[in-house]
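#onboarding

Welcome to the new folks! Below is a worked example of what a typical request in this channel looks like: someone posts a single protein sequence, and someone else replies with the predicted structure as tokens. Don't worry about understanding the tokens yet, we'll cover that in week two.

Example request:
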Amino acid sequence: MRLGVVGHGGRISGMIKGPFRQADSDLRVVAVVDPDEEGARSRLAEEDRDDAVFYPSLDEMVRRGNLDALAIGTRCNLHTPYAIEAAAYDIPLFLEKPVAINMEQAIALEDAFEGSACPVVVSFPLRVSPLCTITREYLADGAVGTPEHILATNYVPYGTVYWDHEYRNYDITQGLFLQKATHDLDYICYLMDSPIVRVGAMHTRGRIFGGSKPAGLRCSACDDTETCLESPESRKRNSSGGVQSDHWCLFGEDCGSPETGMNEDSSSALIEFESGVHGVYTQVFYARRDAGTRGATISGYQGTLRFDWYTNELHRVRHHRPFSDTIKAGGGASHFGGDTELARDFVAVIRGKGASRTPIRTGLESVYACLAARASAETGAFVDVRQVGAVS
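Example response:
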């Protein structure tokens, strides 16, 4: 199985060496487009290093590489341009999220895939994780009756990555609705079996992270490492998570500002579904340790379902009978087992033995909802969500 990769960074190389190769041990990276050839080569698995050929463009890689599949793992602002190119071919594509970072990109991407023969697996592991799929099965079996409300939360215990890594570059990420909530709004729509049509959102920015420290400052050059809670020394001492080696300052002016654009400390969205029901989503990026939680509560007249990926448990409460129960999923897998499922789907699509559970439509629906949430947070108004297939 011959795979061509555009942007061989940390995330996609980890997927290839882990879940992809577990799904098909004969998969090989034979072609790469990446301007940082040295870095990209260093991330190749040992069995790929001798055979991988680097190309200057996706077009040349496809024409000369004799590929069975493509994977796009570039930085976020480049997902759309390369995916638009890939839409011209009928080669199965694994596309990292978010599929776009602004409305112009999203509409152009939708236009490119209208009528395209390119099958896509969008990197949405939460939707296909075992805990999410069994929750969907419970809902389909009437566990809550008709779902009338969903409350979803994501208290991120590793949230400092969005300030002490490249993710802090707002020009590339365009904020954490697009960078993080794109996963969650996707699985929320999947569970509620309805697209989001309207959003009212708020965000708080610059209250915790960001500040006036010099741009480019790293802990190794700072005089405050003894007292700063984000220094490697403090993180080790307090077991508070995050990288424990030298890193960029989380309180630097290059983290951006509310005026120029920056990642949010927390953000929330009130969401209305096409079905007529509503829900709430909240994400917090300064939580630590046992405060981490990610999951949802779905309720209807007949019952309530509540699950959390961090505990890997699903609770069911019957409203009108004196019974409740809990089931527990296995743990330890990447993205709560979702990455393994994505890899299996991708291999099945390549072999012609299965269909994608996360096609390009899911990526577009999520990004349209995320763009509406960001616009609402910036304007203070409810925003209608563009629907896939709408006339421009």
